[in-house]
Design goal:
- By secondary structure, the chain is an alpha+beta fold.
- It has helices spanning 12-52, 54-57, 68-80, 141-152, 156-187, 203-230, 235-246, 260-263, 290-301, 358-370, 376-403, 419-422, 425-441, 443-463, and strands spanning 88-92, 101-105, 114-120, 127-134, 310-313, 322-326, 337-341, 346-351.
- Among the domains are: 54-139, no CATH class; 260-355, Nuclear Transport Factor 2, Chain: A, CATH 3.10.450.
- It is elongated and about 85 Å long.
- It starts with 11 loop residues before the first helix and ends in a 7-residue tail after the last helix.
Length: 470
Amino acid sequence: MPSTAPPPSRGWFAQLLLRLHFLAGLFVGPFVLVAALSGAVYAVAPSIEQVVYRHELTAPSTAAARPLADQVAAAQRYVAANHPDDTVVEVRPAPAPGDTTRVMFTEAGLLESQTRAVFVDPGDASVRGDLPVYGTSGSLPFRTWISTVHRSLFLGDVGRLYSETAASWLGIVSLAGIGLWAFRLRTARRKRELVVPDTRLRGYRRTFSWHAATGAWVLLGALFLSATGITWSHFAGDNVTALRSALSWQAPTVDTALGGAAAMGMTAGEHAGHHGSAAAPVGSPATVTPEQFDEVLAVARSADVHAAEVRIRPAATTDQAWTVEEIKLSWPVAMNAVAVDPTSMTAVSQVTWDDYPLMAKAAKLGINTHMGALFGLPNQLVLLAAALGIAAMVVLGYVMWWQRRTPGTRVGRAPADGALARAPWWGAIAVVAVAIGLALLLPVVGVTLLGFLLVDALVTAFRSRPGATR
């Protein structure tokens, strides 16, 4: 009579992990595969953009940079010919010799957070072209397109459920996989096979060897991409934002509200006459002149904004300050920001990188790494390798499923069910508690995990009935 006590490596928990790893990988695999492949392209997109948009991004003139006023005025003349209603909302001075300045305009018909950037040669103020750009990262059309595929498949909020499913379950499947890997570590006679594929094997065992070894190498990358990717998701992302807010982990921002004389439009300082709104009422549209960009930047430079990569954003109304923010995403990052009163040309609010809470710094660094920006090309190549490794894991998983077919069947066998029914009471309670906790923090993965546990229990109960066939 066979023993009813399974060996430790085949206990209820290992069986539960195996079935969860299999079923989650089977059904979520397509989402993870799309996210991995699009993410692989997105990882190297910054380098691709430097080639595709070389004309717009490079400035051939070797002359000294002209004032921002000249560059902004040139961009305004260029835009006025076709879009006279467009207004300047941001200027990004050329960060290095040979780079162009970006003068960014509002434009009807663009996506949310998207502007029209006019690229100006700082040396002679000639316009090199114009392109739509997206977000703080300044993504150009190629990277914006890849990013939209990666985040939502061009399906809006409905599509974001795909990326949330992929990001959430990627972490769960990875953790289940490393749990199974740890169980094998206890029993494997050749530990080397756990990290290096055994090419002597054939068929299913060969595929499994490649799957397990690849998983060991990409585990940390998969968990990192899952954790940072969740911050962009719909439901889970909102929960993360709420949690950060409750724990005061959010990044600080400068205060742009002006009061007193500034809010009443009263002039002050030697530069006050340049803004052209000395008697403007509170909250009325602000008048922005090209000369102000040089003046505001000079104030910011004297207030600890030293990075070459900055963005200058004029105030929309007279009761608001201008802002100058460092946007250096590579290491070491530069995130200092200053709010400047355009009437007195003085700094009225300031935030430095040292003001960021520890978790806000970690989140910023994690997101920059996820985007391939923190360490430049090496960062991009590591992300590319991790994304391709995750994609290979998905494909190998499906190949293994196919290779597990028995004669006369069209698909492979699934791991045995009933693990939760065999679990001790404390184990079952722990699993359900974890599932409920995940449902609260990560709704998509939590709800689907509870669904998996319910289906698994119902299937087990059905097969346990007298006369039920297996």
